[in-house]
Task: inverse folding
């Protein structure tokens, strides 16, 4: 089984990668198209030069890696906005495609704390909706996962016909060998964790200058949220 987990930034995506990586039967890949995205887009991301230097930046070579087998399974953490026009996508057609979503207010508030003035393109809601239309698959909401980690992971495993493994619920604190080099900037909270964080509170306030981004993102989120997996 090859799982492509599609998620925008500042979601539960790294914790989900750690959950699947805690299993003995999965290899994992962390955002393999990040370096190709940075090269082609020229986007001014934190650590961009280091990411390009440390990771494969040819999208054709990355696509070939995404078509490999795991041990026996492969879990790939992908960001929809990394898949620029012209990047190979045939490898995803026979993957188990899962779309991890989070309310845009939470994404924007969290992203803005790490990188100023995120745009709609930065947070990936349009691209994720487009990928769902193209690939289909399962939708799962991080709010539901945090409210009931075991229940939702069991439901997800059942939906993809994978036996649930209790090892998914816990992992040792600290970085992982599979982390991208960008982990030192983005993964502080998950490196301090030993499992999926608890339920979230009320939606955060979004700064006035980012209200337009929120308003544009919400319809795309709601369209996928209506299709989300329930326990």
Result:
């Amino acid at each position: 089984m090859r799982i492509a987990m599609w998620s925008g930034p500042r979601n539960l995506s790294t914790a989900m990668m750690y959950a699947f990586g805690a299993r003995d039967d999965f290899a994992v890949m962390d955002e393999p198209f990040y370096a190709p995205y940075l090269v082609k887009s020229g986007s001014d991301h934190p650590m961009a030069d280091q990411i390009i230097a440390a990771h494969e930046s040819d999208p054709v070579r990355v696509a070939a890696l995404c078509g490999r087998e795991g041990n026996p399974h492969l879990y790939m953490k992908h960001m929809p906005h990394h898949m620029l026009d012209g990047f190979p996508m045939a490898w995803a057609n026979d993957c188990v495609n899962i779309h991890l979503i989070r309310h845009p207010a939470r994404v924007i508030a969290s992203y803005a704390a790490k990188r100023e003035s995120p745009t709609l393109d930065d947070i990936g809601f349009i691209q994720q909706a487009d990928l769902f239309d193209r690939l289909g698959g399962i939708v799962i909401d991080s709010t539901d996962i945090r409210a009931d980690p075991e229940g939702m992971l069991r439901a997800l495993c059942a939906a993809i016909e994978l036996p649930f493994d209790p090892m998914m619920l816990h992992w040792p604190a600290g970085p992982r060998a599979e982390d991208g080099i960008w982990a030192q900037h983005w993964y502080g909270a998950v490196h301090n964790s030993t499992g999926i964080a608890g339920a979230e509170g009320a939606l955060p306030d979004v700064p006035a200058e980012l209200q337009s981004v929120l308003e544009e993102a919400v319809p795309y989120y709601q369209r996928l949220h209506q299709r989300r997996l329930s326990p």
Observations:
- The two ends are 22 Å apart (CA to CA).
- The chain has one domain: 2-225.
- The CA atoms of residues 127 and 159 lie 24 Å apart.
- The mean pLDDT is 94.
